[in-house]
């Protein structure tokens, strides 16, 4: 079995049909079917079985797919590392970000491209769970996410810790003199809440903060998208409790920002990448832009 056969097999598994796999590989279906037959003969075992129009892995096929995919990734990593060593810093950095963290990228990308003009960026957006899957599937190398983070599979560096603020319509009378609000006052307002698609995050932290005070917030809408929440605030639907960076990244003239006097919660922003996985020189250099002490990052890579 060679790398070409392994790539054919992995593609068949991921596409679910030989016809679709052949299209992706830019080859005809009969030769690809023959390659699968040859591979099964060589290994002396059935790797795939038909289930209607789709294909299912046998136990042996599952082993070959899982280990073979990792082997292909490692081979690609070797090629990329050799190219980088011989050709300087050039290529594409695939990086993901939660929409609430996008504010950490534009200035850094602009500065980075000024120094490395042959580097381009492909930016993926998603919630932390989706971005984590993208890293595990090698679709992206890095992601910028908010706490809490999953530490089992990922290395990380902290970018910033920031407090929560209340963002509300400019014509609401609260906070006019003090520029602040209390949790008790917030419990009376209709609130629009930032809520992850999966798992726990800011939403659960804030609910717990209300509960500790014997308060029950009046949540009228939820969304994982800050832009949507601020549009709702702008329309007078409710107030939002968001990380302070949201007030600068998504500033609007008809909104005001109040500090929350008795809420001492904060949320952290982190850059994460695959633990013990290959990281391109481009990714390593870009990580340095998140920390003034670049040696601190290099020690974690």
From TrEMBL:
It comes from Cytobacillus firmus. GO terms for cellular component: cytosol. Residues 1-58 form the HTH lysR-type domain. PROSITE patterns: HTH_LYSR (PS50931). This is Transcriptional regulator, LysR family. Keywords: DNA-binding, Transcription, Transcription regulation. Belongs to the LysR transcriptional regulatory family. The keyword Mitochondrion does not apply. The keyword Glycoprotein does not apply. GO terms for molecular function: DNA binding; DNA-binding transcription factor activity. PANTHER family: HTH-TYPE TRANSCRIPTIONAL REGULATOR BSDA, HTH-TYPE TRANSCRIPTIONAL REGULATOR YBHD. Transmembrane segments: none annotated. SUPFAM superfamilies: Periplasmic binding protein-like II (SSF53850), Winged helix' DNA-binding domain (SSF46785).
